[in-house]
Every structure is written in structure tokens, then in C-alpha cells.
Amino acid sequence: MNQHIKPLSADIIIVQVGVNDLYRIPIFPENKETIISECKSNIKEIVRQSRQLGAVVILTTIFPIAEVPLERKLFWSPDIVVTGIKEVNDFIYSLEKKDVIIFDTKEILANEQGKVREEYSRDFLHLNRAGYKALNEKLIPILKRL
Phi first, then psi: what are they for 144, rounded to 5°? Predict the structure, then answer.
């Protein structure tokens, strides 16, 4: 934050974080609650520091994921989505304030099953160019308002 963000003197900071922290749940299932708690704590601290810099924060929810491919299922846990992403996204909503805007990515990216739409998915965790374009189209009016 001090090295990369503070020198920019930004009026608006867009924060998209979380899933990489939660990706550790299958590796350390006994630490699931700690991993989720640390993720929430990290997000809260990023928001706190951003506000302290005087910036308006646009905090995205954690992106929905696609169907996990068979070869990745050995290193995957449904707890990442069922518990982790849901709990952290609920927490993200609790951070909303006048200067903290929550940007719901699921509304834009998810299909009827709550998975990222195929046309937006590069792989099961990452968006492709079309996914980011869809997010940006919804983000631009928010930025213009600010």
C-alpha cells in the first residue's frame, strides 16, 4: 500500500481480492476458519488504509468461479465456495459506507447456477477479456458519478 498506492494520491481505489487467500482451504482444511478470518481481516485493513488516504473505495465481491475441472478437484474443496467465498462476500457487504462502495460481481458474471458464465471464463478461477469488459461496462457509470 505504501509503496504502490500511496504515491499515486488516488481519489478512487478499486479493490478486488480474496480468492487466492481462500484457495488455501483444501491444503489446510483444519485451518479453514483461520484462513477465512485472515482473508476478512486483510480486506478490512486494505479498506481502512485506502480510506485513511482519503480515497473512495470501490470494493468488489469475490468473483464467482466456474465448474472446477476434474484434474483440479484433487486440490479443491467445495468449502472454498460454500463457506469461504459466501462468508467473505457477506463480510464485504458489511464494510459498505459512504466512501466504500460495494460492487457486486455476481450480478454481472454469474449464470443461473451461480457459476461464472462460460463466455467470461478464462479458466475456472480467472476471467477472460470479455469478463473484464462486462465488469468495466458496469463500473464506468459508478466512476463517472464519483
Answer: -65, -35
Which pLDDT tens digit goes with each residue over 72-125?
777 777 778 788 999 999 999 999 999 999 999 999 999 999 999 999 999 888
User: Hey, which residues does 58 pair with through a beta bridge?
Assistant: 14, 101
- Sketch the domain layout of the chain as residue ranges: 6-145
What is the distance between the alpha carbons of residues 70 and 47, in angstroms, rounded to a whole number?
36
Cell of 67: 465448474
Pick from 49, 69, 62: which is nearest to 123 by CA?
69
Write down the architecture of domain 6-145 according to CATH. 3-Layer(aba) Sandwich (3.40)
